[in-house]
Each structure stands twice: as structure tokens, then as C-alpha cells.
């Protein structure tokens, strides 16, 4: 089956989408306020607790086939990258609450036409565990976000219980070859963050084409972590402890892969809750990310990554414009929430254009 071509018409916003997105923003601002009042400090509305703040390189080969050699990946080049690994909740909970996880990638030296309002040679890819986004659309995002925001005031023990129930359901479904994106979202296994694959979940433009992307662990030391499990009763920051210890001893490698759009019937643009069947198109490697041994959570770097640095889908080349209902919401939600958080903390947003601006 030939790969389908990008055209603006493949996106079909709902008539009231702008109002829905505004509802998401206001609901998440309320969540930010609730968490700030409890913690005494404003944190990110999602992925608040970092596990590693690292730098490295992304190598694009010079022999990609034409359909993959698009945008940032059009020619062979080695880019510097800054990457933040984090737990999912928009509050700094103990690791008994193990939900979905994030891997935010900032690629430097991204030349080409950029989205409006983005004037730096930088490309951000914001990835999470799970191949799909359970809410599916902006309207679903509004519905589910309201439930999450409403739970922000609950005690941590209640959130731990919910996470445990979801994790057990996830395990039971896995035993019979089934899965639940919602169970994965709220009850991620106690496995090692560097053994996870991370996904865009929703599509983005891929030059002449469209793709979803994923970052897959690709080194022997990471493979050796397959049986590692956190004991959350020993260390409330155990995921961070384990990840920092790994980076003291080993490099980490991820293959960045693209799954090109090939079937408009089975691979929808507007519903991010639908997994694109690999029978229609497989994930294919477009670059290799290497993160060398380093101090993955030094005070200076963690403070910079957690407080100042921003990762946004809107930090993008036009060739990789985020697509679909959830992505259009993210284009507006991320900067709006960042503005509120930075105003509350008094820390200016950092928009580095060179890797040298990242603290050592």
C-alpha cells in the first residue's frame, strides 16, 4: 500500500473546537492552582516530576529512503539534543503512584520554515508511554481533564490506590494478550524508565507525508533492565534514583522511528485513541539518539529543566506540524499553562537555541 500524502484538508476540526480548547485551558489552570496551594510551589500541569535531565546527540543517517527523508530528517546530520524524562502526574507524588511517563526531546540545529511564533532553530518532540492518547479528541481531553483536575485535591493515598487498581488490571489484561490504554495511563508498571518506548500518540506532518513517531530503547544495558522493578516502599523517588544510577555507569540509546500514514480508514488523523495498525505501516528507524554517561539530575540541571525549560509541540518546523484534534489543543494548551506557571514561580521561560546554554 503506498503512503498517503499530506494536505491541509486531512484535518477536520469540530465547529466548537476553540471553545472546547478554552475549556481545557481553564480546567488545567484550576488544577495548577490546587496543586500549587498544596505543594507551595507551581509545577507543570503534567509530567511535573523529572527522573532524568540529560543531553546527547541525535544522528540522522544520510541514506534514508525518500518517504522518510523529510523535514528535519531530509539529510544526514548529527544534532545535539536535550531530553527530560518524567513521571506523568501534574504534581510531585511519590513513586507508588506510577502512571504514564514522558520523554520530551529538544533537537538543536533544526533549520527550515517554522510554525508561526516559533523563531528558534529548535524542534521539540513531546512523547509519552502508550501508543495512543486515551481521550482521543479535544472534547475527550476536556472530559477526562476535568476528572483529573477534580482529583488533584485528593490525598496521595487515594491516588496510589487508583494507580494500583489500574496497574493490576493492566497486568491481568496482558496475561491474556489484551490491553487498555486507560489502564496503562493510570497504572503503569513499576518497570525502569529507560526500558520504556515513548510515542507521539497523535500524528504530525512528515514533510510530504504524515507519521506518528516513537523512541525505542536500543542498547544492551537497557535490555538488561527488563526484569528491574521498583520497590516503592523503599524509595519514594525510586525511578529517579534508578535512572540516575544507570547514567552514572552506562550510555542510553534510543532509535527514533516513524510510522507513516498509509490507510485513512484504519489510521485516523482526528482520533488519537485509535492505534495505527502496523499491518498497514510499521515503525521505521529515522535517527539514533545517544545519551552518554553523565550526572542525570544535578541540582543546576534539574532546576533549569524543571523550572525554566519549556518543551512544546508548537516548537516545530512546518514540515513536522502536529496534526489532529488533540495536537491542535496542545498547540494552545502548552503555552497558556507555561505562562501561568512561570508567572507563579517568577522564573523566566528559557528558550535555548544552542546546547551550550544547557547547564553542565
TrEMBL record:
The protein's matches in PANTHER family, at most eight in alphabetical order, are given as: DOMAIN PROTEIN, PUTATIVE (AFU_ORTHOLOGUE AFUA_5G01990)-RELATED (PTHR36195:SF4), DOMAIN PROTEIN, PUTATIVE (AFU_ORTHOLOGUE AFUA_5G01990)-RELATED-RELATED (PTHR36195)
Species for this entry: Rubellimicrobium aerolatum
For this protein, the record's Gene3D superfamilies field holds: Catalase core domain (2.40.180.10)
Its name, as the record gives it, is Catalase family protein
Q: Which domain of life is it from?
A: Bacteria
Amino acid at each position: 500500500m503506498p503512503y498517503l500524502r499530506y494536505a491541509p484538508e486531512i484535518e477536520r476540526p469540530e465547529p466548537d473546537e476553540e471553545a472546547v480548547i478554552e475549556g481545557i485551558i481553564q480546567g488545567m489552570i484550576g488544577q495548577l492552582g490546587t496543586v500549587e496551594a498544596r505543594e507551595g510551589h507551581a509545577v507543570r500541569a503534567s509530567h511535573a516530576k523529572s527522573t532524568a535531565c540529560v543531553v546527547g546527540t541525535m544522528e540522522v543517517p544520510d541514506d534514508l529512503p525518500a518517504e522518510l527523508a523529510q523535514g528535519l530528517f531530509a539529510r544526514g546530520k548529527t544534532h545535539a539534543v536535550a531530553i527530560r524524562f518524567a513521571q506523568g502526574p501534574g504534581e510531585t507524588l511519590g513513586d507508588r503512584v506510577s502512571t504514564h511517563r514522558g520523554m520530551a526531546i529538544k533537537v538543536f540545529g533544526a533549520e527550515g520554515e517554522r510554525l508561526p511564533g516559533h523563531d528558534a532553530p529548535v524542534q521539540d518532540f513531546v512523547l509519552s508511554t502508550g501508543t495512543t492518547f486515551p481521550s482521543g479528541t479535544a472534547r475527550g481531553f476536556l472530559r477526562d481533564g476535568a476528572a483529573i483536575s477534580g482529583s488533584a485535591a485528593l490525598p496521595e493515598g487515594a491516588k496510589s490506590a487508583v494507580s494500583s487498581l489500574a496497574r493490576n488490571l493492566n497486568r491481568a489484561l496482558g496475561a491474556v494478550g489484551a490491553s487498555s490504554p486507560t489502564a496503562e495511563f493510570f497504572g503503569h508498571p513499576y518497570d525502569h524508565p529507560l526500558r520504556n518506548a515513548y510515542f507521539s500518540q497523535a500524528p504530525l506532518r512528515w514533510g510530504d507525508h504524515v507519521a506518528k513517531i516513537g523512541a525505542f530503547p536500543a542498547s544492551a544495558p537497557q535490555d538488561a533492565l527488563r526484569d528491574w522493578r521498583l520497590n516503592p516502599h523503599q524509595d519514594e523517588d525510586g525511578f529517579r534514583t534508578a535512572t540516575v544510577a544507570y547514567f552514572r555507569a552506562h550510555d542510553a540509546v534510543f532509535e527514533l522511528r516513524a510510522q507513516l500514514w498509509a490507510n485513512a480508514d484504519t489510521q485516523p488523523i482526528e482520533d488519537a485513541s485509535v492505534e495505527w495498525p502496523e499491518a498497514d505501516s510499521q515503525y521505521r528507524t529515522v535517527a539514533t539518539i545517544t545519551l552518554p554517561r553523565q550526572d542525570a539530575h544535578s541540582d543546576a540541571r534539574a532546576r533549569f529543566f524543571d523550572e525554566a525549560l519549556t518543551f512544546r509541540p508548537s516548537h516545530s518546523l512546518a514540515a513536522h506540524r502536529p496534526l489532529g484534534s488533540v495536537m491542535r489543543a496542545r498547540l494552545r494548551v502548552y503555552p497558556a499553562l507555561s505562562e501561568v506557571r512561570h508567572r507563579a514561580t517568577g522564573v523566566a521561560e528559557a528558550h535555548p537555541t544552542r546546547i551550550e546554554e544547557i547547564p553542565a
